[in-house]
Structures are given as C-alpha cells and as structure tokens.
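Tutorial, part two.
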Amino acid sequence: MQAEVEWHTDLLPHWRDDNVLLSQTCGYPLVKSLPDVQLVGAFQSNAQGCEGLRYRSWLVARKEDENLTLSDFRGRRAVCNSDDSHSGYNSLRYVIAPLAHDGAFFSDTQLSGSHRQSLAALREQRADIAAIDCITWALLRAHHPEELAGLEIIGETPLCAALPLITSAKTDPKTLEHLRSALTELTIDKKYQQLLLASLISGFAIPERAFYDEVKAWEDQAAEYGVTAL
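Running the prediction step on this input gives:
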C-alpha cells in the first residue's frame, strides 16, 4: 500500500500539531516559533552551495544586472518567499544589514509565497533581487530550467544550518528512535539511490538542537545594525 502525503498551506499550525509524525520545517520558525517540537535530524545535500549539514542562499537577479554587487541594489525592490523563511528572508536581511542606512536598504520588499514565485517576480520585473536557497535552485535547474531563464546568481549568503526534520513533542522516544533509524537506512540503502540522487540528498545526520542557534544569531546581528525587517 502506498502512503499518502498531505501538503499543507498553513504550515505553522501543521508543525505545531500534536499528531505530526514527521515533517520538514525551516530553521527560522524552529528557533522562533516551535520550541516544543522534537528535532529528528536533517538531510545532507550534494547541491552546489551545500557543505555537510549546511546550505546557503544564492542572491539572484535578472541577467541585465549580473555584473552588479549587493550594494548596487540599494533602493531597489526585493522579493522573499515569506518573512518566516531563513533562506529567503532572514539570510537576506543578514547580508544587507551592514549596508543599510537608518535600518533600511531596499525601497520595497514583497512576500511572494514561495521561492518559485519569487523567481517569477524577478523574471516579470516586479522585483529586482531575491535570496533563493541553493537546493531549490539546483532542483529547478535540473527539472524546470525555464524558471531560471534570464536570471543569474550575483552573490551568496554564508552557510547556515540545513532544514530540520521534526516530530511532535508528543512522539515517544521509541518512535523517535525508529524515525531516525529509518531515515538513516533510507540514505544508505542502494535501492533508494536513484530517488536520493534526484532529490540531491546525500545523507542524514542528527545534530544537537543548539546547531540551529546560528539562525537566530543572524537575526540578532542584523538588529545590531538597526535592521529588524527587510
């Protein structure tokens, strides 16, 4: 029997649901809004831009701006997937903070709803720059290259903690152990290698929850420059 995957559009209530067995969140909501969920682990990725259990975002603009640097986008328009995203929002805020004047850098920041919609906003000239996580970029390049047409990487963010896999606070220790064992087996079993290759997954590891403290540290460091929002 094939298991069914349920896709949620309202993610925070889903992540907080006591019945969640396994889900993937972002490091930013993990440290900001999900203090009670249990960390299962994280996938390692072999996408360009990843190293071990860390990934980065690419700074993406239209090809006409490919020779510009981040500082050249002062006063222009940014687009982010959501304001609770590390890769699209927190990381972009972190890299523009030292360049900001009076807490501001961009003239406008739109929230698109997803990285793919942010890329569409760039292509359609509704925004000028976005931070796109390197795994999304690599998957689109492999499977939907038309969504990257006319766009170029003009910079990058530093590496930060990979997307966490979580389970409910109500999940018992034995079930948590089984989850971790199954995910470890998944990444080493030869029969799943084609699936893993297509998904750019190269391993599974179990970091300490404190591993994600650096996500919050990026927010705090931007605030030291007076930048609390994009």
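The longest strand covers residues 38-45. In part three we will examine how such features are distributed along the chain.
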